[in-house]
Amino acid sequence: MFQRARAVALYEGTAQDLVHRLKYGDRLDLGRAMARMMASAGAELIAETDLVVPVPLHALRLWRRRFNQAALLARDVASASSLPCDVRALARVKRTRPQVGLTRVQRADNLQGAFRVPEAAKPRLAGRRVLLVDDVATTGATGNAAARALLRGGARQVDLLTFATVSTEAD
């Protein structure tokens, strides 16, 4: 599970609109500004980070959407922070149904076994402090599932940085 989490804003109003425009409206130009805000909000985490890793999409979802918003944000957070970003350190190996409308328990069940660290990435993760990047944290289920895989793959610590969060609880 991830150790700490930070977000720029609550997932409502303008923040929700920005995420939707980036994710579904092909407004990739918003990514850089959102990432700068994330780097500022996550400065405490970034100061203790060795490697930035995005939450990956399943290959089919990536094909449909044409880009991974988390990877876009992660690259820009890493660039703004002078940190390396490894978009291949974590793979989504299970096609899961969309999390929208699922309860906390259903979200966790949906993500069981969804992520894996490829063998080739394990040396790049070994003993490193990872900053996991995503656009939104709802219940923390995705972040926790991804963090568990990263820790099993050799990471020493995983923190989560998102643009928005549904609640102020870090779960």
Mean pLDDT across residues: 88
Cα distance spanning the termini: 9 Å
Tally the structural domains: 1
| Radius of gyration (Å) | 14 Å
Percent of residues in helices comes to 40-55%
Strand order, main sheet: write it out: 1-6-5-2
> Could you state the order of secondary-structure elements as H and E?
EHHHEHHEHEHEHE
Q: What's the CATH topology name?
A: Rossmann fold
CATH class: Alpha Beta
Residue windows where pLDDT falls under 50 for at least 5 positions: none
So how many helices?
Answer: 8
How would you characterize the overall build of this protein?
By secondary structure, this protein is an alpha/beta fold. The chain has one domain: 3-Layer(aba) Sandwich (Rossmann fold). Strands 1-6-5-2 form a four-stranded parallel beta sheet, with helices on both faces. The chain has a two-stranded antiparallel sheet with strand order 3-4. Helix 2 crosses helix 5. The longest helix has 13 residues. The model has no long low-confidence stretch (mean pLDDT 88).
Chart the SSEs and their pairings.
Blueprint: E1 5-10, H1 13-24, H2 30-41, H3 43-46, E2 51-54, H4 59-65, H5 69-81, E3 91-92, H6 104-110, E4 115-116, H7 122-125, E5 129-137, H8 141-152, E6 157-165
Parallel strand pairs: 1-6, 2-5, 5-6
Antiparallel strand pairs: 3-4
Helix pairs in contact: 2-5
Short description:
This protein is of the alpha/beta class and 171 residues long. It contains eight helices and six strands.
